[in-house]
Amino acid sequence: MEVTNRRSLATGVGLALFIAAALTLGAAAQQAPSTPALHAKLFRRLLIRNAMVIYGSGRPPYGPADIVVEDGRIASIGTPGEFVARAADAVIDATGKYVMPGIVNTHMHWHEERQPGMPQPIQYERNLYLAAGVTTAREVGGDFDKSKTWQAQSNAHSIISPRILVYPVVSKGRTGSPAEIRAWIRDIKQQGADGLKIIAVDRDQLEAILDEAHQLGLRTTTHIGVEETTAKDYIELGVNAIEHFYGIADAALNGVQNFPPDMNYNDEIHRFAYAGELWAQADPVKLSKIIDMMVERHVGWSPTFSIYEASRDVLRAQNLPWFKDYLHPSMEAYFKPSLDNHGSYFLGWTSSQEARWKRQYRIWMDAVHEFGVKGGLVTTGDDAGYIYSMYGFGISRELELHEEAGFHPLEVIEHATWNGARMLGMEDQLGKVREGFIADLLVVNGNPLENLKLLNPYGADVMVVSGRQVSNDTPVGVGERVQVVHAGGIEWTIKDGIPYHVPTLMREVKDMVAGARRGRTTTP
Ligand SMILES: [Zn+2]
Fold it and tell me: Are the C-beta atoms of 485 and 464 separated by less than 8 Å?
């Protein structure tokens, strides 16, 4: 969009991006397509200069400040210039940028293929998550042995990847006797499980799982199906966290769920069409009591709003602008409506189904907001790789939906950083821009508190007045040049003190996708 200079309008996004970089960001060199020498290198002492700081736990931003990172930790934070005399091996100029803690994704899965028979390189997913600012990823169900290997490699910095925590699904939870369940849990703990994911169990099975987990000091989280147990059972028996929305409204029903008589839970169209339905059937007074119980018993909530969003607006979900360059053909094929692929249930999806889901979202979001306001621990997870949600882009959208649920952007960032660290039991070293903490830091092109869309790996449209990036309520003087340019994004994602250049990560993703599309022999 162009107001006073019509010629620029015709120059398109490419030039606009250049203008934004050159005129408004103060660090034009970092916007250049070439890879800076700092990318993916470990330095003994890294200096981040002149940053505005978002602390992580809800404190207002402050700055400008210089941050010194030594051996992967935040060594000191001071006023600009204070550390210039000291030898830094590398410097990131954060003038005009905001620095915040790395994002903790509390619900994700690693995938090496989506459509069966079509491999998807694991580096594709790692790059996208880092580009979206995810420095810590909790995998809640996956290939345990592979994820443990990747965890060790990530810790040793031999791969470019977020830090990984591995929560395997209790595999015998459904079929095993309590003794078998307990033996399996002891064994998986021996093999290095960081926690457990519980799904679809009866009350006696749940008692065995949680009792054993407590004895071993294993953290737990759950995806509660529509089943014998509800959130009430999990809260009473001491689960650490609840994923998604399931089980909470179920615990507040007056009687059993009221599904139509032809309901078949194994039919994903039925299951997902009615999945959110229980919020409207829940007794509001009972629901509030369940939320109080969760707060009292310190049960966290990772709502994963973004993964179900297609249910309320499928056309939006199918037409996201980043698909053009970044959607891997394996995922593209997997997303196509099909009863064979989990979560691809959009066969003849109707306006009525969307309208119902929109109502569900309002009740669900109000419940999460009430939980947060009462002191409950809310975190952010994306569960991407299903339902049109792409790795990284999903977590970015998740933050926007937490704002839609009624949280202040500063609270949303707290959910994504400090609260995530607390859910993982890493709050003594992760999730805040604090001296002594692990140097997981994001250098953001702009102020995410003004617009969370700036954290999207795709970037965002920003308003530029006479060459300066400004908030869109800035008054415009007579004769000033007003433009909309595509900018934003995270410039650097720093994990364990190692800076990763996001434009480089995204260029690599684009190349992987282009290569996979060229090499595709069959059209799905
Ligand atoms: Zn999941």
Answer: yes
Q: Is the pLDDT of residue 464 over 70?
A: yes
Instruction: Compute the distance from residue 138 Cα to the ligand 1 centre, in Å.
Output: 10
Q: Which residues contact 419 (CB under 8 A, 6 or more apart)?
A: 104, 300, 377, 378, 379, 431
pLDDT in tens, 100-119: 999 999 999 999 999 999 99
Spacing, Cα 508 to ligand 1 middle (Å): 26
Bridging pattern class, strands 90-93 and 45-53: parallel
- Secondary structure of 88-130 in the HEC alphabet? CCEEEECCCCEEEECEEEEEECCCCECCCCCECCHHHHHHHHH
Distance 429 CA to ligand 1 centre (A): 26
CA of 299 to the centre of ligand 1 (A): 18
Please give the distance, rounded to the nearest whole angstrom, from the Cα atom of residue 314 to the centre of ligand 1.
20
Q: How far is the CA of 243 from the centre of ligand 1 (A)?
A: 8
* Ligand 1: centre distance to CA 190 (Å): 24
Name the DSSP letter for residue 21: I
Q: Are 166 and 193 in contact (CB under 8 A)?
A: yes
Residue with tokens 């009591």: 289
pLDDT level of residue 17 (50, 70, 90 thresholds): very low
Which alpha helices (DSSP H) does 132-227 contain, by range? Answer: 144-155, 178-190, 203-216
How much distance in Å is there from the Cα of 306 to the middle of ligand 1? 12
Per-residue model confidence as pLDDT tens digits over 364-376: 999 999 999 999 9
Q: Which single residue is written with the structure tokens 């059993």?
A: 256
Q: Which of 134, 100, 104, 136 is nearest to 450 (CA)?
A: 100
- Please name which of 392, 371, 372, 373 lies closest in space to residue 456, comparing C-alpha atoms: 392
For residue 18, how far is its CA from the centre of ligand 1 (angstroms)?
A: 39
3-state secondary structure 433-454: CCCCCECCEEEECCCCCCCHHH
- Rounded distance from Cα 454 to ligand 1 centre (Å): 25
> What is the rounded CA–CA span in Å between residue 349 and residue 267?
14
Query: What is the tens place of the pLDDT at every residue in 249-291?
Result: 999 999 999 999 999 999 999 999 888 789 999 999 999 999 9
Q: How many residues does the chain have?
A: 524
The rounded Å distance from CA 108 to ligand 1 centre is 6
| 457 neighbors 506 (Cβ within 8 angstroms) | yes
> Residue 93 pLDDT > 90, yes or no?
yes
Contact residues for 172 (Cβ-Cβ < 8 A; gap 6+): 180, 181, 184
